[in-house]
Design goal:
This protein has three helices and no strands. It is mainly alpha-helical and about 110 residues long. This is MICOS complex subunit MIC12.
Length: about 110
C-alpha cells in the first residue's frame, strides 16, 4: 500500500510542478503578447514629424584654407609622379641608345 501512496504522491507533486511552470509560462506569454501589441500600436501611430538629426555632410565644417592646401599638395604629388614617369622613360631611352646605338625606337636589335 505504501508503494501506491508513494507513487500517487509523486504524481501529484509532479503534476503540481508542471501546472505551476505551465501557468507561469502562459501568464508571461500573455503579458509579452500584450506588451508587443502595445509597442506595435505605438510604432504604427507614431507622429511622422519626428525631427531627425542633420546629415553628416552638413555637420562637417567648411575649411577653405585646408581645402586649398590639400588641393595644392595633391597637385604637387601628381606632378612629381608624372615627372618620375617621364624620367623613367628618358632613362630607358638613353639606355637603349647606349646599348644598341642609334635609334632608340627599336625594341630589338636586328
Amino acid at each position: 500500500m505504501s508503494f501506491l501512496v508513494g507513487t500517487v504522491s509523486g504524481a501529484l507533486v509532479a503534476g503540481g510542478v508542471y501546472y505551476g511552470f505551465s501557468s507561469t509560462m502562459a501568464t508571461r506569454t500573455q503579458r509579452h503578447r500584450a506588451d508587443m501589441h502595445h509597442l506595435s500600436e505605438r510604432l504604427v501611430n507614431a507622429a511622422a514629424d519626428i525631427p531627425a538629426p542633420i546629415p553628416a555632410s552638413q555637420r562637417i565644417p567648411e575649411r577653405p584654407f585646408m581645402s586649398m592646401l590639400q588641393d595644392s599638395w595633391n597637385t604637387q604629388i601628381a606632378t612629381l609622379f608624372r615627372r618620375t614617369g617621364d624620367l623613367d622613360r628618358q632613362v630607358v631611352e638613353w639606355g637603349r641608345k647606349t646599348l644598341y646605338g642609334g635609334d632608340a625606337d627599336r625594341t630589338k636589335p636586328e
